[in-house]
Design goal:
The protein is α+β, with helices and mostly antiparallel strands. It is about 35% helix and about 25% strand. It has one domain: GIY-YIG endonuclease.
Length: about 110
Amino acid sequence: MTKRKKRSDRNHLIYGITCETTGEQYIGVTVMKKSAQWKTLYERWQGHLYKAYVTQEQWELPATIRKYGYEAFSLSILDVVRGKKAAFAAEAALINSSNTKLNTRKKQSA
């Protein structure tokens, strides 16, 4: 049995998460499931909530979710890009040109 090659030409969803209380943003990218953009985004949001409440990740987005509660956030679809390299390049460009304070890791207190 031959091993199947991973596809690199899939559609990727670039999305934004905004804390309505502070106006701070997070921009992310995820592989899109078929053509269901909002379902893909909702599933990715559930992953962020898991990191915030269950694994207690110590970076800006999960910490901010814990601080303000998940109700304080809005989700948006920013773009759909075909291909992994193009998607990550588009995400990086959006991060560099936006108020994405939630994309950084939280500094550990000593």
